[in-house]
Write a structure and sequence with these properties.
The chain is an alpha/beta fold. 49% of the residues lie in helices and 22% in strands.
């Protein structure tokens, strides 16, 4: 199950979010997992980014892997998205909001599944190939 909590005033297509996340899970043959996705504002995202990444600015997305199995419940982790930052990046990279949202969703679900891009170039390339498969 993919649970979405929208703490912003921006209307976001939750169906699109769920389908995108499920598409990656199915494509990666990950099985059925619970993922929590929270949409938040810039101030809260800045706070999270400072606390967890030591960067004093908002970011578009943060992923927190938390593989947890309790009975038949399997939780993959949590994704936090700042729609305002997604919109700014969409403009910066000449993409639509929907295209940029899809990019951050695919990227973050891959992170939850263990893909990494910040440690080695080989890992970054592997993750980029997987991202392209879902965009």
């Amino acid at each position: 199950m993919i649970k979405i909590t929208n703490l912003t005033k921006r209307a976001v297509d939750t169906n699109f979010i769920v389908k995108t996340a499920q598409h990656v899970l199915i494509g990666e043959k990950a099985g059925t997992w619970d993922i929590s996705i929270c949409l938040t504002n810039c101030a809260k995202m800045k706070e999270f980014n400072r606390r967890f990444r030591k960067k004093n600015k908002p970011t578009d997305v943060l992923s927190f892997a938390g593989l947890e199995i309790k009975g038949n419940k399997k939780k993959l982790g949590q994704i936090i998205i700042c729609p305002t930052e997604v919109k700014a990046n969409a403009k910066k990279f000449s993409r639509s909001f929907q295209e940029e949202l899809k990019l951050v969703l695919v990227h973050s679900v891959l992170h939850l599944l263990g893909y990494e891009h910040e440690k080695t170039e080989k890992q970054a390339q592997k993750m980029r190939v997987r991202e392209l498969a879902y965009l």
